[in-house]
Structures are given as structure tokens and as C-alpha cells.
Specification:
four-stranded antiparallel beta sheet; alpha+beta; single chain; 199 residues; 3 helices
Length: 199
Amino acid sequence: MRTVTVTGTGTARVSPDTAVVRLSALARGAGVSEAYEAMAAAAATVVEVAARHTDERRVASTGITVWPFHDHEGRREGYEARHGYAIACGDLAAAGTMLAALAREVGDGLAVDGVALEVTDDTVAGGKAREAAFHDARERAAALARMSGAGLGAVQTVVEGDQGAGPVPVAKVALASAGGLEPGEATVTSTVTVVWELA
């Protein structure tokens, strides 16, 4: 039995609907204690503000550091303390509003390290990508079959390959307005390898 084996690729687009904000509360002081106490005050404000916009269980510490900082000539000027957080928001509007509130209430004690936009459920987009991948494989197989003077017979096997979200766009933060986040689009990709009998 003659067969033809082809791998097809399909994509589908989906809009991210959740955000993970990575930020830090930071402060400087002449000594370790001064820097740490000022950072702790900023961190308390971060947690308080975040709790108004997302579930407290979604606010997680990622690390605390204290280290000396120096001027441009290498002379020690004091210490900097930093408390990192990852804050998950199930709503993009809430995430944008939270960022604006943090900038307003924490002020210069806030450092935003990044915002990752994520897709909660890509089931529908994954199904569309899978269907597109199968159609792509069938078109390629049909072309190869014609070149060999045959037609496509029955499908013998179908194997699905890796799939996942493609590059997620960088969030645009508009702190001057409502702190809105532009979701853009993420790409879900699917691959299938199909073996057809040649008729």
C-alpha cells in the first residue's frame, strides 16, 4: 500500500483576557534599616491597593533584596531595598486601573517590571487552529498525490503535534488616562501529521 505523510500547520487568533503585573516596592536610605522601613511602607501600600482590584490570594511576593547603591564614581551613597510582587488580575480593565492607582498612591516607590497578558481559555481558538492544520495537511497531501499521478484515499493515522500560544503583545500602559491595557492578539498554533493512503 502506497501512502503519503504530510504535516500541516494552522493558527488562530485570540485576545488575552487576564494580566500578570510584575512590580516592586522600593526605597533608598542612608542605612539598611532606613531603606528597609521605607520599602516596607511602600510595600504595604502596594498590597492595600492591589487588594482593591484583585483577589488577595493572587498577590504573591517574588523576593526581597537590600543592597548598597553607589554614585557614578563608585562611592557608596546608601542602601536600596526592594520587595517584588507578581499580581494576577482576571480582568484587563481592573489591571489597568490598579496600575494607575499604584502609580498615584505609591509614587516614586513603585517600579513596574512588566505586564504579561495571558489567555485564560484557548479551547475555541485551539479547535480552530487544529482544523486549519488538518486542512493545510490535506491540501499539501492532495498536491503531492497529484504529482505522483494518484489521488487521496482513506486517512490511515492522525498525530497531533505541539501547540501553544505564540508571542503575546507587549501591554501598552496609559497611566495618564485610565491606566488602560490594550490586549492585542495572541496566536494559537497547532500542527497535525496525517498519513493518507494513495488511491
